[in-house]
Design goal:
10 strands, four-stranded antiparallel sheet, six-stranded mixed sheet, mainly beta
Length: 114
């Protein structure tokens, strides 16, 4: 059973940057469409970004131009580089196989606050 492992979250001030990482033992990242989703306090799961098997990237309007998804095939890792973070980006971030969060792990908490 595939389950992602996410890391890299933390507390950052508005305007700051973070890079999140995820991997999934047993899953070949280069052969998979992988998504980042997030869940803000008291809210449902929200799709953030996708990288497909052809390395085509897509982003939600709320993060477009600020976040970048990437993949390191040699390390079997997927990343989410986040710049110009805003308080509304505060959430638990997950890697997943679907927008509904299939195979997501425990997530990594990102808190954007001054």
């Amino acid at each position: 059973q595939v389950q992602f492992e996410e890391s890299g979250g933390g507390l950052v001030q508005p305007g700051g940057s973070l890079r999140l990482s995820c991997t999934a033992p047993g899953l070949v990242a280069s052969r998979s469409t992988i998504k980042w989703v997030r869940q803000a306090p008291g809210k449902g799961l929200e799709w953030v970004s996708t990288i497909d098997i052809d390395d085509i990237e897509s982003y939600s309007d709320s993060v477009k131009g600020r976040f970048t998804i990437s993949r390191d095939n040699a390390k079997n890792m997927v990343y989410l580089s986040m710049n110009n973070l805003k308080p509304e980006d505060t959430a638990v971030y997950y890697c997943a196989l679907t927008q509904s969060g299939a195979a997501r792990g425990k997530g990594t908490l990102v808190t954007v606050s001054s």
